[in-house]
Amino acid sequence: MSPCNAVAVRQARMVKVNNAEALLSSPEALAVCKKLLAQLWEMDENMISVDKGRDFVRFNAGLWYVRIWDKGGVEANPVRFLEQIKSMLDTVIPLALQLRVQAAVAAEYQILGQQRAAAGELVLTVEL
């Protein structure tokens, strides 16, 4: 009997996205956020702490902060950086979610390869 090289395509979509949880579940995403905020705020990233509240995550550097709510709202002080921060989060949060999906898949299957589709989707090749 010869091996089967059939292709099975499975698409997944997260229905309820908790932005704060997505960041907290990915050390890589937290590190990227701290680094980008440090660049934006022109300070050392070691000056930025990460605090978890009941329904938010907060990046804090004294009077400077960003609070990301579970349901998607974002607050920032100083407010002049808010649009740049929202843009950053629009990139980092989907990547954090993709890492979470990748970890869940890797827990069940051996990942043989990965690549990015044209629109940035993560495409995993696994052994079933």
Mean pLDDT: 84
What portion of residues is helical? 25-40%
Give me the CATH fold name of the domain at 19-100. TATA-Binding Protein
Please tell me what the overall shape is. elongated
Extended strand count: 6
Q: Note the main sheet.
A: 4 strands, antiparallel
Structural class: alpha+beta
Strand content: 25-35%
Q: Would you identify the regions where 5 or more consecutive residues have pLDDT less than 50?
A: none
Return Rg in Å.
18 Å
Output the number of helix runs: 3
Q: Which CATH top level class of the domain at 19-100 fits?
A: Alpha Beta
CATH architecture of the domain at 19-100: 2-Layer Sandwich
SSE topology string: HHEEEEHEE
Can you tell me about this structure?
The chain is α+β, with helices and mostly antiparallel strands. It has a domain at 19-100: TATA-Binding Protein (2-Layer Sandwich). 38% of the residues lie in helices and 26% in strands. The chain has three helices and six strands; from the N terminus they run H-H-E-E-E-E-H-E-E. It has helices spanning 19-24, 27-41, 82-108, and strands at residues 49-52, 56-61, 64-69, 74-77, 110-116, 122-127. The strands form two sheets. It has a four-stranded antiparallel sheet. A two-stranded antiparallel sheet has the order 5-6. Helix 2 (27-41) packs antiparallel against helix 3. The longest helix is centred in the last third of the chain and has 27 residues, at 82-108. The chain is elongated. The model has no long low-confidence stretch (mean pLDDT 84).
